[in-house]
Amino acid sequence: MDTTKNPPKFKYKLTTAYDGTQYSGWQIQPNAISIQEIIQDKLEILLKRKATVVGAGRTDAGVHAMGQVAHFRHDEELDLFRILASLNGLLPRDIRVKKVEAVPEDFHARFSAINKEYHYHLNLNFVQDPFNRLYSWHLPEKINLDLLQECAQLFVGTHDFTSFANEAKAGAAARNPIRTIKRIEMIPEREGVRLEFEAGSFLYKMVRNLTGMIIEVAKGKRDLSEVSEILAAKDRRRAGRAAPAHGLFLVKVEYPKDKDEG
Q1: What's the whole-model pTM score?
Q2: Which residues are catalytic?
Q3: What's the pLDDT score for residue 258?
Q4: Distance from first CA to last CA of the chain, Å, rounded?
Q5: What is the dihedral of CA 104, 105, 111, 112, to 10 degrees?
């Protein structure tokens, strides 16, 4: 059937969570196992036909999610509880679909999103809890938390984030590298702190690159004055190394209807 001329009548939203440790990230790619591919394959088994799962955004290899969102189309109305239970019965235990919802035709997991929230976890203990090692960046050396907080606030607001985007000459960064970060908060945790990033959208690897810069300042390896210079340079090479993937979580993707209900 030509789905471009006769698109399936029904559209469904999936809210998913996953431990990204064993995967190449969300997005399907050759010679690697991705979250998107696994969910899509299991969905096709249940629907007995080809399905395309479209995500709200890609997460890198090793990055985790508590609230990744995706959508797919189908030409029949589905029993939402049954499809939820059946999908989770087929999926590996480190990937879960938390909710399945029917959504309007104009819903798009990526383009309808109005807000995203990421958390980056920093373990500041001298000795790291082994059960925490896959979900936080271990920083046993001295970190100046006042400097960390001060540096983070320099990125809040509207800026050209070319210097903090991988693939700056391709995709979203090439079209428009300007983003507005609504907040970056430092929240105490049992073994350290987490940085909460909230914005309408982010560029590729932007949160990890910002975190890497913030930590370099907090360690005393960079000066606060360099932040404005690096933003103005529009050069990824100036910003230093990205924070490791395994400390990052995509926590929430919000849509207009979510705000209305709130």
Answers
A1: 0.93
A2: 60
A3: 72
A4: 40
A5: -20
